[in-house]
Amino acid sequence: MIFKEIIGYTYLHKPLVIVHFYHEKYKKLNCNLRLKVFIMAGQHGDEKYGQFAINRLMQLLTDNCNLQMESFFEIAFLKNANPDGSIQNQRTNAIGLDLNRDHLRLESNETKAIHSFVRDWNPHIIIDIHNYPPRRKHLIAKNLIYYHDIFIDVPTNPASITSTTIDHLPNYNTIINDFFDFVKLHLKNQDILCERYTIVKPSGIVRHSTIDIVDARNSLSTRYGNLTILLEGKNPAKRDGQKGKEHIINAQFQALSIILKWLSISVNRNYFLTNLNDKRTSSIGDKVAIRSKYNKNKSNFTMTFKDSITKLPIEIDLNDYSSYLEVTKYIKLPNAYAVPLHNSQIIEILKRHGFVENKLPDNQDINIEYYYYTSSVGNDNPTISSRKFLNDDNSIIKELKKKSFVKIKKKIKTLNNYIIYYISQPGGHFLAVLLEPRSKYGLYRYKDLGISYSTTSNDFYYPILRIV
Question: Are residues 345 and 270 in the same domain?
């Protein structure tokens, strides 16, 4: 069965259309057996081949809906996430925003609509389709061109479902390694070269996708508890002609089909049905990773490139390979976060992400923690002035943070002019990622949001409180 829905409109009033496909038996299934897959393409308006691949899969499903689809699948397609940019053949949307860098702040109509749909529909799996340019200046200087037809990747932010410390996804690494192996092998059998998305930086450092949460892959997974898969097809060269275009469209179509085949295997399907249905509702005291760093692998990473002179494939050993991610900072979740009303832009972003606002009960003792920062960088003790402040305020230094960060705990009776966000709501751990002052991925990075304010020329209090 097939039906359509409009989830929003672009700045030029173009509809964002979702097309749903499901077997007629699907609605009769117990909800715990229904695997929902959301496939989108076209966030970058100048990337058309992924849209063509979706067209091919949608046509196949339209022609053979009852024969080709397993009864436990429902697939939702957003073929063109950026109609305005697509019309102009430009990367950004009509107001110049790169949609795949807008999944943290959600400033565009398009990303707001996508997140709203994901919250409402709760897909277990999201596949985000792109195309990538194989020629990079620093690689061309070494006579190298990216050669793979398909790059794939999974969420890498340590606070996403890849986090093993929260124990929501036992055996996750085993499942994901099997996913990579399965897709690469089945594409290889069709003469399609596939590898995990790999970035070779001008410095020579080699890593996989970014760990930041500005893109769809990390943001959607970290916020909503799904598995978001990145699927990148190589842009064909002009000299490859129509044959080259057809090869890439077919490669992305086949990759989509193989991913769905992998998901149809009962052990994989049941794994995600079992582990993702709760959407990772958080609890007080849960550990959330807010900082991490790449560590260099002991072994090299061997990858195929094309020699720009001979035009032949060549195997290169990449020795500055950093794929192992080490978490360098965890925090334990408080009961809630309190954001001052004057930080209206922060509140607006949290509203766009669908977080529920609350107020605290009246006439009740409130235990809070807040951060005090002094400019005494390099000294692991508070300055004399900050010691005096702490004594005069009758506060307790609960924990002295790196350099000059101090977390202070106190008990108060009222908390006016704040909006309260409890972490017990779905995706509550994402609040820590956004609001903690030490988070590598937090909103404090954006100076225009005014998340911190100075009390002197050198010192400031971080205005967002932790309610414990």
Answer: no
